[in-house]
Predict the 3D structure of the following.
Amino acid sequence: MANNEMPNKIEATSSRSELYREIVPSYFVGGIRPGFIETIAVTVRSNLVESAVLGKPQKMEHIEEICIKLTPIEAKNLKDWLKDILSEYEKQFGEITTSKE
């Protein structure tokens, strides 16, 4: 095959990173930067059981789990996907209400 010819097939594979994990974020923070939108998933943990059982002072810890940087196009794609998936969720499980409503 000459250097300027394209291959007939491109092999595509997918796999899961060794660092892959699931989290349930408590909230998101973020902002905009030139060329991308950034969001940080934050979880909140407490020592409620230790506090109640052992009498330790109660603590709440806010942990920044991951920062996701999206191009504006990918951010719009994510917004559209979330809108579609939330609509489907509400059809199956009922309307989602938030504290803002």
User: Anything to note?
Assistant: The CA atoms of residues 47 and 53 lie 10 Å apart. Helices lie at 48-54, 72-93. DSSP finds two helices and three strands in the chain. The chain has a mean pLDDT of 91.
